[in-house]
Structures are given as C-alpha cells and as structure tokens.
Amino acid sequence: MLDKNGIAKRIAQEVRNGWYVNLGIGIPTLVANFIPEGMEVEFQSENGILGMGPFPMDGDEDADLINAGKQTITAMPGAVYFDSATSFAMIRGRHVQLTVLGAMEVAQNGDIANWKIPGKMVKGMGGAMDLVASAENIIVAMMHTNRAGASKLLPSCSLPLTGVGCVKRVVTNLAVMDIKDGAFHLVERAPGVTVQDIAAATAGKLVIPENVPEMNID
Amino acid sequence: MLDKNGIAKRIAQEVRNGWYVNLGIGIPTLVANFIPEGMEVEFQSENGILGMGPFPMDGDEDADLINAGKQTITAMPGAVYFDSATSFAMIRGRHVQLTVLGAMEVAQNGDIANWKIPGKMVKGMGGAMDLVASAENIIVAMMHTNRAGASKLLPSCSLPLTGVGCVKRVVTNLAVMDIKDGAFHLVERAPGVTVQDIAAATAGKLVIPENVPEMNID
Amino acid sequence: MAISKTVEGPQAGCAGVQSGMTLMLGGFGLCGIPECSIAELVKLGTKDLTCISNNAGVDDFGLGLLLQKRQIRKMISSYVGENDEFERQMLSGELEVDLIPQGSLAERCRAGGSGIPAFFTPAGYGTEVAEGKEVREFDGKPHILESALTADFAFVKAWKGDSAGNLVFKATARNFNPMMAMAGKITVAEVEELVPLGALDPNEIHLPGIFVQRIFQGAHYDKRIEQRTVQTRETA
Amino acid sequence: MAISKTVEGPQAGCAGVQSGMTLMLGGFGLCGIPECSIAELVKLGTKDLTCISNNAGVDDFGLGLLLQKRQIRKMISSYVGENDEFERQMLSGELEVDLIPQGSLAERCRAGGSGIPAFFTPAGYGTEVAEGKEVREFDGKPHILESALTADFAFVKAWKGDSAGNLVFKATARNFNPMMAMAGKITVAEVEELVPLGALDPNEIHLPGIFVQRIFQGAHYDKRIEQRTVQTRETA
Asked: What was the pLDDT predicted at C235?
C-alpha cells in the first residue's frame, strides 16, 4: 500500500520529457518532488506562472509570488508570469499536456466529482472544471476509499460532477487503473497489495487482466 | 469649399478632452495635426499602439514602429504597444471614443460602404468593419461627390456595405451633416458654400433647418 | 498629449460607488488585491453590492472586511474557502453566491471588456454550471455558451503605473487584474508606485491605460500571505 | 527544468511543412514578419498552402515571395493591397481569397489557441462577411458567430527569445504574432536575438514559451519599410 508520497512518486513516472504539467492541491503537488533531475518538465499554476520552482528559503518568501494553492513559491530560470485569461487559454487550448488532481469520486465512465458535497459548505470549483474539460491527459491521485472505508471508484458518481468522461488514469494507494470502455482496467498493484484487495475496494466495474504487475517505484 | 486639411480641421473640433481616437487612412490621418496644444487626446492605431506621435525625423524611422497605414511613426510619452487582439478588444469594447474614417458611400440610414467595388480589385476591409460596428462616435470624412461628380450621400448604398446604421456625422468639403431618423440633417455649410450647393450635391434625403451657420475653422 | 487619470487617493478613487452596484475586484486569494480601495469601500458603507472576484478574502482581510459589515449581497467567484463569516452568511441565506469555473470567470471578464457578448467553452459541460445554458458540439465535443461580465466599477491593484493609467503588475499578483480592468465601466487602479509619465517602457506595459479611468498610489500595503510555505535553510 | 525548443535554423524550423497545409504567418504589412521562415518556405517549394496572415506582403518581399512561386492556393487576410502578382492570381482564379475583418481575424486566432471554438462579435453584421453565419442579438444589438482558426504551422517573429520559447516583441512588430503563436499546432518562432535562459525577466515576457515548439535566431533581417514617412530636420 502506498502513502501519499508513494502515489506522487508513481505518478511522476507518467510524466514525459517536454511536458507542461498542472498539479492540483494536495497529493498532486508532491509529484514535483519526484521528477528525475535533468528532465525537461515545466509546472504551470493556473493563477499565472509557468516554470514554478520549490518553496522559497525561509525569509525569501514574496507575497506577490504564489501558486494556485496560495502557497509561496519560487520561479525557475525560464519562468514566465501571465494573467488568468492567458493561463486558461493554455489550459483550455490544450497546451498543458498533463493535469494531476484529486477527487472525491471517479466513475467507470471517466466522470469525476471533486468540488461539492450537498449539504456541506461549498467552496467552489476553482479551476478544476476548466482543467478536466480540456486536458488531454488527466490523472486522478487519491485514496482508493474514503475515510468511512467506502470505495471512491464507482459505477457512477453520486456527488455533483466536475467533469464528464474525462479521467483516463487513476493512481491510488492500492493500484494504477486505466478508464476505458466503461470500466476500470487494473494496470498495476501497489507493493504488497493483492488483486483481491483492489477488487474488494472497487465498487465500479473492474477489468482484471491475467497479469497484474506490482509497481516499481524505487 | 474645404480642402482636405479643412475637413480635417473641422473634424478636429469634434474631439473632446480625454478621448481616445482612431484615425483612418487619408483625410482622417490629418486630423491629428489640428488638435489644440495641451488637449489630452491619445491616438490609437489598430496595429498596436496607443499614444501615436508625429512622423519621425529623417533618419530616426524604425521599421518596427508603424501605424495601420504602414507609415513610420513615433510614440508619445505614456504610449503603449500591444498585440492585435488587445487592440480590437479596445475597439470592440468601446474604449475608443471616436473613429474617423473615409467612405465611398454613406446612406441616409447611417450605412457606410468603403471597402469594395464589385468588378474591381478588392483589397480588403482591414479593421474598418470592426471599427464601424463598435465605435460610439463615427465621423466620416470624405468629399461630398466622387470624381465623376456623383453624390456620395445616398438614399441607400449601392456598394457592398462595411457597416449598417452606424454613421452619426459626416464632414465633407461642403458641409457638416448629422444622420438621424433616416435623413441627413444639415448642420453647417463650408465657407462660401450655399445650402443650394449642398442640396444639389446630396442624393439622399436632406433636412435643412431654418438657420445653417457657416463653419468657423480658424 | 496623454490623458491624465491621476486622482488624490482612495476617496476620490471610490467616488460614485453606490449601494446596489456591481463591482469587480482583482486578485487571487490575498495576492494582488486592491487593499486601499477595499478599505475605502468599508468606510463608505455602501450596501447590497454584487462583488465579482475570484475569491472572497479571509475573515479579517480582503473582501472579508466587506462581508463583516454585511455590504455584499451577492458574490460571483470561483473559490470561496477560508472564510467563516462568508460560510455563515451563505448558509443563513443572507448572501447569494454564484460559483463559476475560474477559466470561464477570467474569460467572461475579458469578453466583457472586449465587446464579445458570449463565447463557447467546454468547461462545466455536464455539470451544474451548464444548467440553463446552450450546449453545442464543436468537433464532436460539447461546449456551453458563456456570457460576458461587466461591472459598474472595477478595482484593480498594480505594482507600478503612470498618470495615463498604464499598469505593470508584479509576478503572480497580475492574475485577474488586467481582465477586470478591461471590464469595468469605471476602472480604478491603485498602485504601489506612481511613476512619471514616460518612465514606463511602452514595450513593457501589461495593461494599456485606455482601460483605466482613475489611478492613485496606495499609502500602505499589507500584502498578507495566506499560506507561508518555506524551506528552512538547514534542511535545504 | 525548462523545456528546450532551440533548433539550428530555418531549415530545422520548417521541417515537416507539407503541401496542402494551413500556415499562419505573423506580421502587419512587412512589420514583424517571419522573414527567415518565409525564405526557407520558398526554398522548400511546398505547394497548395493556405496562408493565414493579415496581409500578403509586397511583390518582392514577405508573402509576395511565396505568391511569385505559386505556392499559395488560398489566402485568409484582412487587407491584401500593394501586391500586383496577388491581384493577377486572384483575378485569374488561381488564388482563393477569404477576407476577414482584422479584429475578427485576431480574435479567431486567439480563440483557436485558447480552446474557444466560437464567439459572437458585432463586426461584419449586415455585410457579406455575415453571409451564412448565425446572427444573434445581445442587448438589442445584432452580432454574428465567428469560429476559431488554427494552423498546422504558425510562423512568428520576435525581437528576443530564450530556449524555453519565451518571446519579447518590439513596438508594433508584435501585432498578430502572439495570437498566431497560440493557434499553431507547431509554432516556429524566429528571433533577432536568442538570449540565455534566465536572461528575460519573467515579468516582461509577451508570449509564454508554452505556445512555441521551435525557436531559432535568424541570420539576417531586412526589415523593409513600406511607407517611409519622415519630417525633414529643417522643417520640424
């Protein structure tokens, strides 16, 4: 079973040289820590920076330089700042190759719900609806089950949707799964996790191939 | 009767302090020469400058600094350069208070034709259609009649239109006229020109008030 | 000769704001918000405002200050977390909230300032956001029709500006400020530094002054940080 | 680590351009045109091109060079004067021409690069430009629906650029270059000066490198002036 860093580490393997990547708040943010040295990858934050670097040294933080999670950040050489309209032109126009974001629920048809729980305080969708409606590659990073132990991989979402039929791949603490033809297709198991564990934690239709290799995340 | 500079001089009187103004090619360009010293007016050229100044001194011309007529120009203090999308955002969004442009024909309902003569080489509308579709104040600067002596102020345009019902005022070598309620309303006579001269040169419906003052363009 | 937009300060900047008006306010979180104009709006006490802003501030800063004084009737935003008073007013029904995808919010402001009354976007298709909106397929992909947003007043904050209203923003404090400046009937820019006309390179201006009607230099900026995240020098 | 887009020169920049493709070419008149890429396209001799560019050059420069070699099948422009060969080919029916209002052309390119498939504009309503297009009233004013433009290749020219593809333009040579860069499936930027990564201030970049796939420094720029208008020093 993976911890949050393990999930991020596995997702980092999906990143290709030359890609622009948007990382959501939470586990997705950790992905940046596991990109191999020397790989040409730039991180976009939708509030208006491309070429986002690590957190600043204590004392160097600048109120005018933050990411979409409102955290203080730094800029890498070759970075560029821009306005919100230009930022979403990049996203909507499919210039960002990969979006990694969290979810409350993912359905076997690729629907995603991650912004609203009826009856609870609604904070808003931020840029998530724009991101999921446009990105070519969307990877969801999340725990396989919620705090109550219920599966987050469902036949259909019960919560209000963020986007329809858009998620291609899900990486959880238990497994890597592709979504196609109306089902979750098991691709890899987390270390020490059995196919039975995954099947038990997946409420949606799960297609299990003959051979399901264990992830290699070292 | 006015010459081209006279027409420009009369139109300059229409310009108000604090206005952004777009001047078309030809007579309109001359308007800039007659803005009173100290008046706060900025000229926009749709290829991407606000705060356009006079032509450069011989030897100072810069191929990268031109106006929409492709003429070399200079920039005034406070000028700014921008791209074509931003330029037409200004125009379409009605941030430019006045557009002055030439025309082949103007109709008594405010239609204008100035970009195409069927059977002749078509050069294109450039930015004229965007300008006439959006500007709050559109003044047409032109000769009252064409080279063949035919009126350019018509019951309806015979040439392909550039815009519909958009022209508010016309300044010609003979007169100033407002367009409203489907007619040309005579406002002023050019020096030495009679109401009869104007009526004879106007094919469209002309409303002549009791008192038609002569222009004061000194 | 350049058109002068300079006004004395926030009082002159906010002159004419009335109860019931629609305001746009630039900024992302607390980054790049028009601090001085917000403080003046609190002083003015105008009520029933509709505020278009990506976020709603925190309890004791940014738009939270207007919420505390119950000056806002409706918020149009993309994300409104981090604000208890906001939550209370929303749940009690005192405050109306319209949530819009962030990219659509940005583009709707730009459209409002650009004379584009409506455009199609894929964002929000198949969600609550699409309810009541026209859907049309382009290249086999469904899109929804979104309309332009404008405001009676837009309040924006820049790093530097000149008397002609030309603005330069700093780093990610740019965010929504340029588009909101475009969409305001009256746009009020506050700047950290008002520089002499001609001091800004015409090639390096982020927002042309034509979109700005008033400009003043703010007396003081707090520039609070919402999430101070740093590396300690030892561990780095 | 920044993504490197640097290629050797125009030959590598134009690699992959094939007959029948749609190209965008930045510039306004002869100002800010991708001179080196155009020269290379002439060498390549690819035919049946659809060229989207505000103008069509002059007889012996800019897109006029491609017209002379009959490489262009269709031009999409707003203004095509000053070119006799263009006129001859158009009147003889060899060349198809689609004329578009300049503001709609700019916005259609931006839309193409921004994932906005269509938008409403008042420009061209009631004219030939509106033929076959949807008309809709907003606020009592009729608008027409215009669609996005994209291209297989976009060729743009900037003043300075870095290996990440970040571009800075000079004065009015910016014009259509940024929007066309956004709308190209492959965007090739040629620059007068390729500067080291990190040499451009991230706050002063006009076009983020994400929109550029290839960049090279041009060997030489003619930068011809179409209408040299000057004041003589005596009369001034």
From this structure: 55
